[in-house]
Xanthine dehydrogenase YagS FAD-binding subunit
Amino acid sequence: MRAFKYSRATEPKSASKLVSANEKAQFLAGGTNVLDLMKEDVERPTELVDISKIQLTDVTESGNLISIGGLGKNTATANHPLIRNNFPMLTQAILAGASAQIRNMATNGGNLNQRTRCSYFFETAMPCNKREPGSGCGALEGVNRMHAIFGWSESCIAVHPSDMCIPLVALDAVVKIQGVNGEMKNIPFSDYHRLPGNDPQKDNNLVHGELITSIDIPKNNFANNSCYLKIRDRSSYAFALISVAAALELDGKSIKDVRLAMGGVSHKPWRALAAEKFLKGKTANMANFKIAAEEEMKSAKAFEHNQFKIEMGKKAIVRALSQALDGGTA
Ligand code: SF4
């Protein structure tokens, strides 16, 4: 690992100021992503600003919002009664991610800001536009089994690795941010992460030095009929091949409202808007779930090794919706 300057901030404004003053500075919170990347010599910050002691850790309720602190730990957030009772699919998603040890260290803001990447990103002998803009994409003609089927570009076909972010995009969360000039900003979750386009090195729409202070989730009526389904190669410590967050609000047998989002399929958490549009107002049954899945997967485009994701995606959508209808056990 290369030498770097270390400093500690005690509140969001000074943390933001310190990082924004040095274009090669980064925040250090749980360290579960940035330290790995530094050890692999993929990320080379000259300065780390430790924000782990800033008190942005609580889960709070105010009016119609539940707010989770940007520096709260993933495990504590998943197990908080306000999250378990109001957004059980968020609890399920967080607990499906990484390992228990990593979830105990990783922060909520860090989960959103972990790098969108594939294994070639770590392989410094291979081209990677995300690691070194303009060098090419090793995955396009390489092993691309884990890669995107929606929203990719010739520049990058990696997928965002988070589980937590999939229910957050489905639930219309809002990311609250400490701006670099002392101002506060809000970004709707669906606008937070980016598709790769011609700038795959940019994973999200933060300005350098901006800090996530909280993630706010509006209350809803989905708690009784929601679930997070994750399909992966082994049962722990593996990224999703496909994941689905599914939530239904029912009026008898009719779907009054529905939220559906997918992981493992795109550079950003993928909101399944085509499926949602079809399902609204329809009867909640297998036949309609199957049509919705076909609608969503129509626009998927796969590569040599990940063709299976298209059929798997359809089946995962149907299964997640069925589990949500049955009360949401995942
Ligand atoms: Fe790099 Fe993205 Fe290509 Fe992977 S898919 S090699 S992260 S540019």
Remarks:
- The pocket of iron/sulfur cluster is lined by residues 117-118, 120-121, 128-130, 137-139, 156-158, 200 (CB under 6 Å).
